Amino acid sequence: MLQELGDKLDVVLRKLKGQGKLTEKNIADSMRTIRRALLEADVNYKVVKKFIEDVEGRALGQEVIKSISPGQMVVKIIYDELTRLMGEKDVPVNFGHSVPGVLMLCGLQGCGKTTLAGKLAYYFRKKGRNPLLVAADVHRPAAIEQLRLIGASIHVPVHSEEGRDALVIAKNAVHYARKNMLDSVIIDTAGRLHVDDEMMREVKELKQAVDPDEILFVADAMTGQDAVTTAKAFSDQLDFDGIVLTKMDGDARGGAALSIRAVTNKPIKFISIGEKVDQLEPFHPDRLASRILGMGDVVSLVERAQEAVDEERAAKLEKKLRRQEFTLEDFFDQLQQVKKMGPLQEILAMMPGAQNKALKNMQIDDHALVRVEAIINSMTIEERRSPQMINGSRRKRIAHGSGTSVQDVNRLLNQFTMMRKMIKQMNRGSGHLRPLGF
Known about the structure:
Elements: H1 3-17, H2 24-40, H3 45-59, H4 62-65, H5 70-85, E1 101-106, H6 113-126, E2 131-135, H7 141-154, E3 158-159, H8 166-179, E4 184-188, H9 197-210, E5 214-220, H10 225-238, E6 242-246, H11 255-264, E7 268-272, E8 280-282, H12 285-292, H13 298-308, H14 311-322, H15 328-340, H16 344-349, H17 357-360, H18 367-377, H19 381-385, H20 392-402, H21 406-428
Parallel strand pairs: 1-4, 1-5, 2-3, 2-4, 5-6, 6-7
Antiparallel strand pairs: 7-8
């Protein structure tokens, strides 16, 4: 979402790095371009004004003028100010000491509250908690059924009651959770197309009735400044505890991510990066600032790899690599683990140098992985273990069975042969081999 802003900042910072020294003029010119880029990204104009003033003030300070690499120092200043703008450090959800801990979601209709409720339940269950989803959006019957389906898909119980109002449902849900040893209650509340008195009254009554440990405001990042305005209205009347930005995988300008923390003075706690139930990330201001400036996000990349990789299987594969026994079966297994890490374009964006022109222009085709899977699945066990036995007639059969062409099969086999040669050369060298490079 913030790639366009990152591209524009990259152009400005490259020019600054090429300067022999920093002057008031080249700093002012750069700040003017950065101001325009931020405004075009739909960042709140007051936030932009303060950000530019802070960066310019530090860039003209003695610490920069005396620096050996003034351009690099400006990059560091912009990184620091972006991080500060978005909250400086991550703020996790605090369930307090009560059991069950209660988390209430609020926001406008269509911002993704119901889907987010399921994602949060999935996330907290992975962290060892036992969540209960609560269908308290009685104004939209489809929301109740949607939450039931989500709960069933992730094996999390859903509390819903026909013909009751949201207040009664929420109270009964907390009692049910306490009785059934469920330690986390996630309440999905009703939304509206815009902020109105009735909606505010209902969520205020819910807050008073169940006394949630935290209230999270759910904002659609694609609505830009509208999300910021709505967040401010909710903050003034409800005083929520944190923000979740949904649809961060969209192609909108994304200014909400840079504005909403500064305007509301409330921390962003999660960002939703896709429709799947596992596509929810804790928000780390420093990591997003790093991605915007093309410095990558190695920490998040390693965390994803650790979640995707089975250590026991990885150790077995490392032994096979050392013995040069790597087969197409092993390759297929590694492919499944890479897929768990997310779309390849997303993984690439986390690597340092993501703003590099060659990397940026690289076209990543996730469907190519599907074709590779289909080809390997169309092989017999013997063919996967001994690819050298695959002759012309076998290649035709594999292509026909996988819905691909003989050229596709040949390409995969050639790439696999090259990979095995590379593994052989690495074994002759340092001998440091780890699956997935970690």
